[in-house]
Design goal:
about 140 residues; alpha+beta; Immunoglobulin-like; 4-stranded antiparallel sheet; 7 strands
């Protein structure tokens, strides 16, 4: 019984110390504005995915996901200072991804999504090359 109480007290103390260290971290409010690249109009219901990035550039397993409103805006209060990886995914647009350094109390990020580009295939090139091949002359 004594061991159980001791383990409980140690666990509670470590949780309190961990919470205190997190509370000491400076936090930022990050505001996102997601626009169409070709006309500057807002993109509604775009998914904005946030992942902290460690000093080695590796993405941590924690994160958050937001949705833009009808004005293309989304906001997240409480992001710790440091690098954060932002991905924006919206139907009909290229996926956006970039790392941002969060180092101030309020951070505004504007993201312009591009239309998908034409995809190329090695098979299409081969077929087109065969079509353009000049006929050989027979003597």
């Amino acid at each position: 019984m004594f061991r159980f109480k001791l383990m409980f007290v140690m666990l509670a103390a470590s949780l309190l110390l961990g919470a205190a260290s997190v509370a000491d971290e400076p936090l930022s409010v990050v505001n996102f504005l997601v626009l169409k690249d070709f006309n500057g109009k807002p993109v509604k219901n775009a998914s904005v995915v946030l992942h902290p990035v460690d000093k080695k550039g590796k993405q941590k397993h924690t994160g958050a996901q937001l949705k833009t409103d009808s004005e293309g805006k989304a906001s997240y209060p409480g992001i710790p200072y440091g690098k954060v990886r932002v991905q924006v995914i919206a139907s009909g647009y290229q996926t956006f991804g970039q790392d941002f350094e969060i180092n101030q109390g309020t951070h505004n990020i504007e993201i312009k999504l591009k239309r998908p580009q034409e995809q190329f295939s090695i098979y299409e090139k081969k077929e087109k090359a065969d079509e353009k091949k000049p006929e050989e002359k027979k003597n």
